[in-house]
Amino acid sequence: MKYSNQTHRSTSDPEARLYRKGKGKEARLCYLMHDLLDTKSRVILRRRVSPAHSAREREVALEMLDHVQQKQTVLALPHAVQIASLDAGYGTGDFAAALLERAILPHMPLQAGAEPEAVPRWRRRTDDLAQQRKRREKVKIAEARNRVRELQQSRGYAISRRLRLRSEHIFAEAKTCHGMDRARVRGCKRLQVQADLVATVQNLKRLVSFRGTRRPAAAQAAQAAQAAQVQGVTGTGQRPWGRRGGSFTDARCHRGTAPRPVRRRCPLRPLRQRPFSTDF
To answer: Where would you tag: which of 91, 94, 192, 224 has the fewest CB atoms within 10 A of its CB?
Structure first.
């Protein structure tokens, strides 16, 4: 007997659907998780869970883009979304046309051929409104495909395609480190709560990583201490972050005596620069 979504349903989780990731792989009861993230900072802007269906990916992507565009001021985004880097599953003409209508450049491989196609023309006019609508839709899709082919030859396309791999890293981190390899609850709404909590944790890790690599106060303190040592000026006894051991000048001056350096009897070993768990 062949199992399919038309003949079988899960008794414990009816919203789950049979889905296989690729050819030759087994079908499993699962959901789909979609991420919309900033590829430079790796911050997740929106995460959605939907029933497993291939056509649902493009619909959810447009919904997330519209939501982020509306909440631009709330999310404190410096500018609106300008480029969308996607995989081949989104490479259809109608989806590319929908992105271009939103003033977003689609950087993605097309499911159609790489050669430019001719825009369809008709010799006879028609007064049927439905027929005119279909013709305009065909022209718009053909022009959108040609626009995507032009973008594939640009330098920005190669850069965005390299940065798109970070989305796969985010998925891998959610599965291996935060338990998103399987659903802990049943139902799409409850699973959405689990996905939102995991996305919050991942964004907090991005924040810690960002603040750990950029320390303006520590850099200024280190520069001031180095300048004081060069000029022979007495320091304040404070040390920059991330440094252990060494000698520091005592700021307490006795009467008639010069400031003397304070030395540790057992200097501590320097800390190793361990990479963050979010670095891939």
So the answer is: 94
